[in-house]
Known about the structure:
This protein is 43% helix and 19% strand. By secondary structure, the chain is α/β, with parallel strands linked by helices. It has a five-stranded mixed sheet. A two-stranded antiparallel sheet has the order 4-5. β6 (168-175) and β7 (178-185) form a beta hairpin. It starts with a helix and ends with a helix. One of its GO terms (molecular function) is O-acyltransferase activity. This is O-acyltransferase WSD1 C-terminal domain-containing protein. It holds the Pfam family WS_DGAT_C. It comes from Ambrosia artemisiifolia. InterPro entries: O-acyltransferase_WSD1-like (IPR045034), O-acyltransferase_WSD1_C (IPR009721).
Amino acid sequence: TINDVITGIIFLGTRLYMEDTREEAKNATSTALVLLNTRSIGGYKSVNEMVQNQEAQVQWGNQFGFLHVSLPKLNQYDQCLNPLKFVQETQDIIKRKRNSSAVFLTGMLLESVRKYRGPEATAEYIHQTLLNSSMTVSNMIGPVEKMTLANQPVKGLYFMVVNVPQSLTVTIMSYMDQLRVAVGTEKGLIDPAKFRKCIEKAFNITYNTAIMAK
């Protein structure tokens, strides 16, 4: 999917930043926590429909699972960087883990913890899981039609997860057939301008390589 491709390019940009910042980062292990929506959505419903329909109320709230994805290392792709191979490797890892039962078992575990131990215990479990990863990648499908807020048209839309223990947070959201990527970095640890250049470089070299491969 397009989100997997973008995730792979972001992983590539992250690796470029790591290696450009510290020499020892070439062999460093970095793990991303990829959040996946596990809600079954058959279509959009109005608030009144969801309130009146008791069966539909199970759709309220977040239902998600997560999987840990290790960032591939650049030096495993010979002397010359092959961005397409890097992105394909990332896609294969995400696809393999997404199709496993681990995602749904994780969702069931979170729901069980919430039901029997409460939301605070669930939040603590998620926080401990976040501590075991270097970055977070989350994506969601946004509205396909133009939105208004207080009768003002919304030109663009994105979201960001805050107060997480990771040093890097990436969110991907579509809105009116346009994709927007937002990046949050830890202040004092990651240079946002330099990281942005590495992400742009990853997009450019991947695009140019794909064009030349046709």
